[in-house]
Amino acid sequence: MNRFAALLLLGAALAGFPARAETMLTGAVEQGSLVVGRAEPGAKVALDGEALPVSPDGVFAIGFDRDHGRSAKLVVTLPDGQVETKVLAVAPRAWQIQRIEKIAPALVTPPPEAMARIKREVAMKAAARPTDTPREWFAGRFIWPARGVISGVFGSQRFYNGTPKNPHYGVDVAAPTGTPIVAPADGIVRLAEPDMYFEGGLVFLDHGQGVISIMMHMSRIDVKAGQHVHQGDPIGAVGQTGRATGPHLHWAMVWRAAHIDPSLLVPGVSTAGAASGAAVGGD
Length: 283
Ligand SMILES: [Zn+2]
Description:
This protein is mainly β.
């Protein structure tokens, strides 16, 4: 605390006002956004009735799914028992419609013999998404994990071979196979699998408190589960593995169960050193 702030607090205390800072939120509250909160140390935080992890110095993450409703309720309980309630207006966004043709039918609707493998991989992925890692790496600035052309944006409603599918929960960076992928922020590798049915080469990077980066379709993986990587460290390379129609990185992010738009966390668009841009991602 600087001297001026200390004097202000002293003045507030002398005037009989509570000498505390209100909970601060950094980041736009909108569908797909991740917001960093800072509360008084020792505070407890709940969003929409769900208790959340908070660092010892009061830092916490809140996120808003692509399909989050128009408002959210943040309740902060201060160490002295006082309760601060904020009703947040969650700005809605408009989503693109994207049609992807010429995907192998077996990858759009997996054949029965693939179901056991898919089920096993779903369990593996669920187990690699801790929601309470006591780290706050998500609170710093993120960088683009790869350079290339943005060929798919977060949230678009996709039609594969004319059939509506799940929304696109990531940003696609089209780049030649072998283009380096780096860690967008510090994290702990939670999953490093070279051959998943849908995702191909897949890496989960845990940035703390349930904020996880998901990198798909990698041609090469240079990290192992459990490894701590720093922002900018190489983690592998762009590829076309799994359900992909061209070489690209699919970068998704989650906060707990919510799908987050990674492009809201990084500056501008990653077109420096761009590839041809002809490749379009499948997922
Ligand atoms: Zn994608």
